[in-house]
Amino acid sequence: MITVENLRKRYDGNPILDGLSFTVKDGEIYGLLGPNGSGKSTTMKILSGILKPDEGNVIIEGVNASENQLKVKEIVGFVPESPTLYESLTPAELFDFIGKVRKIPRGLLEERVNAFVKAFGIEEYLDQFIGTLSFGTKQKVSIIAALLHDPKVLVLDEAMNGLDVKSARIFRELLLEYKRKGKSIVFSTHVLQLAEIICDRIGVIHRGKIVAEGTVEELKKRLEEKSLEDVFLKITESREEVLEIVKALK
Ligand SMILES: Nc1ncnc2c1ncn2[C@@H]1O[C@H](COP(=O)(O)OP(=O)(O)OP(=O)(O)O)[C@@H](O)[C@H]1O
Ligand SMILES: [Mg+2]
Fold first, then answer.
1. H or E stretch including 6?
2. Nearest 5 degrees, angle CA 183-CA 174-CA 68?
3. In the prediction, which pLDDT does 237 show?
């Protein structure tokens, strides 16, 4: 369970998060949507214990993320929006390092690494420097790195980015399995069709707050729109602008 209460964060005096609140239940996939620069990644870094908010609280499985960043890192598996991996390590070395840091018993680590490596089909890259891997392969390594300690909570910042069709499907099935096991998952994406398939509930960030929240069906009904895209454009006040820009382009 994740509770986000009234988060505020400023950069250079500009309010990025301005009273952001939402909750994610056990066994729920919560989609965090919002325009570029709306604060999704900032929120996700706070959820993962990497960044502290100026105000407000994040409680993850009863632990306050600002007060106990180390504990939160044990509970949360975080896939950042761009893979920030040690480029001069190989995936095998990285997984080994994570096993040591997270104190995963040797046999269990091997079992998990083997299963994930096989699932994402990266056997042939295990001993190649991460810096030389393709974008999608790095993303797979980043995903595996986040899952190895079997975290109760997953924070996935555009984690499907760059995955090929097969791997995206496998990852999606894996997320549904995690959901069945009761994990709480926060999932950001710009691909609304993906959000529609995967997420139980959606929260749209705009001007530092969640301005609309609910299932896709609830949002469509409430905003009297036929598609999630139209809901999104309406909520973020972008629709008129889009029409004008398209007109000008013609
Ligand atoms: N370390 C930083 N220093 C200054 N400004 C920052 C910093 N990190 C983020 N910002 C600003 O905060 C705002 C929100 O950024 P954030 O990365 O959270 O957006 P986002 O919703 O994830 O966007 P995107 O959809 O492009 O990934 C942006 O205006 C960004 O420039
Ligand atoms: Mg982002």
1. strand 2-11
2. 35
3. 82
Q: What is the DSSP string of 10-79?
A: EETTEEEEEEEEEEE-TT-EEEEE--TTSSHHHHHHHHTTSS--SEEEEEETTEETTT-HHHHHHHEEEE
Domain 2-214 has CATH 3.40.50.300: yes
CA–centroid distance for 51 within its chain:
15
Helices vs strands, H then E, count in the chain:
10, 10
Considering every ligand atom shown, identify the ligand nearest to the alpha carbon of residue 236 and give its number. 1
- Ligand 1: which of 9, 11, 32, 33 to mutate, judged by most atoms within 8 Å of the beta carbon? 11
Question: What string of H, E and C letters represents the secondary structure of 193-213?
Answer: HHHHHHCCEEEEEECCEEEEE
Of ligand 1's listed atoms, the one at least distance from the Cα of 43 is 18
Distance between Cα 106 and ligand 2 center (Å):
34
Burial of 247 (0-12, 13-18, 19+ CB in 10 A): exposed
Structure tokens at 223: 């905003």
Annotated domain spans of the chain: 2-214
Beta carbons within 10 angstroms of residue 206's beta carbon = 18
pLDDT exceeds cutoff 80 at 239: no
Six-digit token string for 42: 């900032």
pLDDT band at 85 (very low <50, low <70, confident <90, very high): confident
DSSP state of 163: -
Quick one: average pLDDT of 153-178? Answer: 96
pTM of the model: 0.95
Closest ligand 1 atom number to CA of residue 34 = 21
